[in-house]
Batch of 4 targets.
Target 1
Amino acid sequence: MSDKICVGAIAGAFGVNGEVRLKSFTADPEAIADYAPLTTEDGAQSFDVTVVRAIKQGFAARLSGVRTKEEADALRGTRLYAPRDRLPSLPDDEYYHADLIGLTVFDTGGAELGRVKAVLNHGAADLLEVQVPGASNTVLLPFTMAAVPTIDLAAGRIVADPPEGLFE
């Protein structure tokens, strides 16, 4: 399991005074500032975060050390991470996406189906992108209790009961 979890991303500058457009990936979107200081993935930069106001598709926020529109624009696309120990514990049936990536997926008969490459959400529900062994293609597995009845983080495995024909 990763010691850092992605909690947000910078979508660019907001205005001319160094504010940024901030997308929050936390369960309570406004709580992203509670996990500060947030760092870049490589840990090279660290920011204190102040949410200024809600805007369309996120928040206008101030980051420590960012004072101009140009500095804010230079951070476009930067993902922000918080240490895992600052985040709340999850109920038994909820998982951080970072914990699922890399897990091996087996069918209910024990045959390996692949490894989780990514967790996607396009609005309706989460999907596990599973890299099929020995192939370049991936399969999108619905991340539902019916299709994924068992997740064992300690063993690094997922047991799936995929819809018929999905992995053919």
Target 2
Amino acid sequence: MKPEVIRGDVVALLRRIAPEADLDALRGDRALRAQIDIDSMDSLNILAGLAEVFGIAVPETDYGRLQTLDDIVAYVAERTGSGGG
């Protein structure tokens, strides 16, 4: 799966969780919490959504790795074996 496809799927997931957020202006290199209004429950819903959409479970030890959209895309690519595309 190409990174741009993963990114699109992640943005669609974020749109479900935070429909009021302006995701078109989302920067991949900035923390999601600094850009959109998500709380702890939303963060957990994002993690659950990754399991639903991509079939990967995110262990609690990896939560800190998933701060930005770019982080999430790279993590999903790594965990799904999509590496470079």
Target 3
Amino acid sequence: MFSSQELIEIKQLLTTKKNILILSHQNPDGDAIGSSLGLYHFLQALGIESTIIVPNEFPKFLKWLPEAKNIVIADYRTKFTEIAFNNAEIIFCLDFNTASRINQLDQKLRSSKAVKILIDHHQEPDPFDYVYSDTSQPATCQMIYKFIESLGKTSLINEDIAYCLYTGILTDTGSFRFRNTTAETHKIISNLIEAGVYPDIVASNVLDSNTPERIKLLGTVLDSIEILPEQNTAILSLTREQLKSFGYQKGDTEGFVNYGLSIIGIKFVAFFMEDMQNNFIKISFRSKGNFDVNQFARKYFNGGGHINAAGGRSDMSITETIIKFKDILESENISNI
């Protein structure tokens, strides 16, 4: 958490600065959107207006969240984004640890004279003016709740804030299945339910929002599963052509990687997917127990994340990338994970 002195200074900033920007990462997920909207609604409860900007489009299953329609997508509104960065006096940086995670907005953030406040749970954060970084936290949404709590303002957590924070915690904990889901997490979830969240409403919008095309796409990825029994590892993959054939839209593959972990004996899963526009492979890693996919992704695939959930990328073809992955497992003698 921020120090007592930092909290005093941040409170002062919030009473004197008017142009506040909330920023999150490229390919925003449930935690990115939930934490951004949760903070946005909290600032509103304080009587403070703010603007949320994300670099590119976010999944449809998050569009139901209150005021999601007000999120500015930089890809679509370049002029507005330029003006917003030029005028910003405070920039809250949520759910990313380095400016490179915001893609084309990187230079705008670096050159901005605004006070930059980081709230994030990924490892090795860049320096910011104020930093609340805690890798033990399962979601940035949980950190936003604790930030509100540290300001002594939990009484302001209304239904809108609660739904946003609940959604981000739900998605980033794999529906409360990951190891870093703690007793504190469940206490916060309990408080959010008391604030007005109906879990079935979140589940129906986030977890039960499949289209026929997405179900068929899931069938295709499940058909691709390759098991490496000696390494307790499963490999999943999707090509660009497969994605196109089922009318892929952003967010359609959310959670697919977790199906690998549901297989008895599997403790490490890698999901390789061709990017729809660019010639690179997006990789998702998941693990059970103590196998650190964050370090694995950093070392071999220019990525990172958390101990049990991380991402990476490869500029080789999908076939070459999978071969490289298998070679790494063999050469590093990664077995019986």
Target 4
Amino acid sequence: MTAGDLVVWALLCIFGGILPARTAQYFLAPAKGRVRRAVPCLVFGAALSMPTWMGDGNPLYYFPFLLAAFVVGYGGRLAARLVVGVIFFEWVIAWGMIVDTRAVLPASADYWGAILWKLAMWAAVYALARRLFRDSKTITLSGRLWGLLGLLALSPLLSELAFSMWNIRAYTPEGADVVLDAAFYTLLPFVFVSSLALLLAVVLLSRHQALEQEHQLADLREVYYQGIRREQEQVRRLRHDMRNHLTALSGLLEQGGTGRAADYVRSLQAASGPSGAGRWCENDTVNIVLCAKAHELEQAGLEADFQVSLPSALPVRDVDLCALFGNALDNALEAARQAAEKRVAVRARADKGLLMLRVSNAYTGVRTAQNGIFGTTKADRQAHGFGLRGMREIAARYGGTLEASAENGRFELIVCIPLA
């Protein structure tokens, strides 16, 4: 091989390694650091020039290196990295065996022609992944679903590796080559198509799970909002009846019935809705949520530091406002309850075309984020942990953003929503 051939070979391996590595990034978040991100590219590049004949041991030796590359080069659940690594191994090696074992494709008998056929298929799969993820949705699956996909991936994996594990060529009479080749070329396309079908199943299951979570979040927001709305209506009725109550109290006091007047005041306090009612801002929905949460913070022994300036009308649905402020304060209360600093700070205002909400509080323990979302600290993760995801979905629906950070024992949540 001349120096020019070496340069061409190196460029093809680099480009070929980038294609499947970038394809995998649609399914898994890339790891932090250039060195870790480069590992999958190098391992895939090696597969491009590696011969993968039927019965050859190379796929067996290559398999652990590819799994290690997915563990090192990508983030997320370990189960997700292993399952996606297995599926990528299946379609990459299956196509390589189809091309290398028999020169059934034009120019595939030539070494460079075989590499080009591999590159063509890798580019086609990359284009397919781009089309599937044109809406920029990320893959979010539960551990159970990843386990199920892993079990489904075992059948094509073992079928593919069986030829190498048993060194099947060494024990096959030469006269049986035709039958063996027929079985081989019946099996390999099945493995290749099955692996692509598994990748499609990952996407569809993720979208189905996201849709279920959106419905669940919508139901939770509606229930929460209806509760707040009932309290709001109760407060409005009390305001409307206040004149009559004051008239009755005045009459009792004029008649000297101070005891009866005191009883009347106590009955009003018991029916006055959320205690600690005040006027935090002009927006009725946000005000009712803040009043209710201020009372909950007080009951938990926490200080409510609220500075909110919002107009009575906002281009955000009341149910969404309720979910934003309610979930933010619920999370802050839960975290600050265990912290040394017993204070929850809320800053919100509508200014310069933006609705801005910032909630900060202290916390204890360790907070880790996956895809920018901090998970619940409660034991039942299936029933909890929807708050931040629901808030991010609301912000995105209005063209806004949500950022959360947890550093040095302090958690901060910032939501920005354009008001245009």
